[in-house]
Amino acid sequence: MVTVRAPATSANLGCGFDVFGLALERPADIVRVERAEETTIEVTGVGEQYIPTEPPKNTAGVVAEELGTPAHIRINKGVRPSSGLGSSAASAAAAAVALNELYDCGLTRRELVRVAAEGEAAVSGEAHADNVAPSILGGFTMVTDDAITQVEASIPVVACLPEIVVSTRDARRVVPQSVDIDELVDTVGNAATLTAGMFRDNPELVGTGLEDGSVTGSRASLIDGFDAVRTAALDAGATGVAVSGAGPSVLAVCHDDGQSAVASAMLDAFSDADVEARAYPTAVGGGATIERR
């Protein structure tokens, strides 16, 4: 039996659509696996009623099939489904690391990213690695077809999750299929600024780099109160704000001493919009960890 904790993640980060992602210190999923003749899945925790337990429809079940490692998989959800915090990725990442250990498959963490990404296809329809990469590797990650780059960072952030459901498929539909050259130049500049900020552990640079007019702008319309929440966070000291992943979570980058004020301001702004929400003052953290063998 192997137990693995895999963290929530925030992908895109405004300017890095389908490329950038970062691991959060909390919340997280806990997945326990044990050998079995065929794969079965049991789910408990937040939003358990919305998660399929049929292996071909569950990200962890798909991972077991990809690895050829049948198991009884118990998933304790700490990351709410349809939250924009990589809920499906956390389960896939934890299962990949746990099954690799249980069956002694010998795959590296980077190789497991591609396996876990196949699990993501069960939810989004495509094998994206922007959430599973940081959930497995930790820190800030950049994923392309040919490479995965990982940077250790400890930037303070607040992830604010409103009681709104935005599906990944719906959020992808509203993203524009093309942008003009001026917007492209801005996006490249912001991506470079954010990446430099991660290398330097500099919240000001990271926050500046979160700016994005296309993906964030299109997805913000799916989140009641987003504009007010963004303004409130910036007024409270956040260095930058973006939609986390597909949403509806909103991610704010902060200084070490500013998380409490930013979290309170975001919650108050959602409340003013008649939206209940929960804030996670956290930071860029490590990847999946084996907690028990």
Automatic annotation (TrEMBL):
Task: Output the GO biological process annotations, alphabetical, semicolon-separated.
Answer: threonine biosynthetic process
Q: Does the keyword Transferase apply?
A: yes
A GO-annotated cellular component = cytoplasm
Q: Which residues form a coiled coil?
A: none
| Catalytically driven reaction(s) | L-homoserine + ATP = O-phospho-L-homoserine + ADP + H(+)
GO MF: ATP binding; homoserine kinase activity
SUPFAM superfamilies assigned to the protein according to its UniProt record, in alphabetical order: GHMP Kinase, C-terminal domain, Ribosomal protein S5 domain 2-like
Known InterPro entries for this protein?
Answer: GHMP_kinase_C_dom (IPR013750), GHMP_kinase_C_sf (IPR036554), GHMP_kinase_N_dom (IPR006204), Homoserine_kinase (IPR000870), Ribosomal_Su5_D2-typ_SF (IPR020568), Ribsml_uS5_D2-typ_fold_subgr (IPR014721)
Query: Which pathway is it part of?
Result: Amino-acid biosynthesis; L-threonine biosynthesis; L-threonine from L-aspartate: step 4/5
Q: Does the keyword Transcription regulation apply?
A: no
Q: Which Pfam families match?
A: GHMP_kinases_C, GHMP_kinases_N
Q: Cite the GHMP kinase N-terminal domain residue spans from the record.
A: 58-139
Its function, per the record, reads: Catalyzes the ATP-dependent phosphorylation of L-homoserine to L-homoserine phosphate.
NCBIfam families for this protein = PRK01212.1-4, thrB
- Name of the protein in its database record: Homoserine kinase
Name the source organism: Haladaptatus paucihalophilus DX253
- Gene name on record? thrB
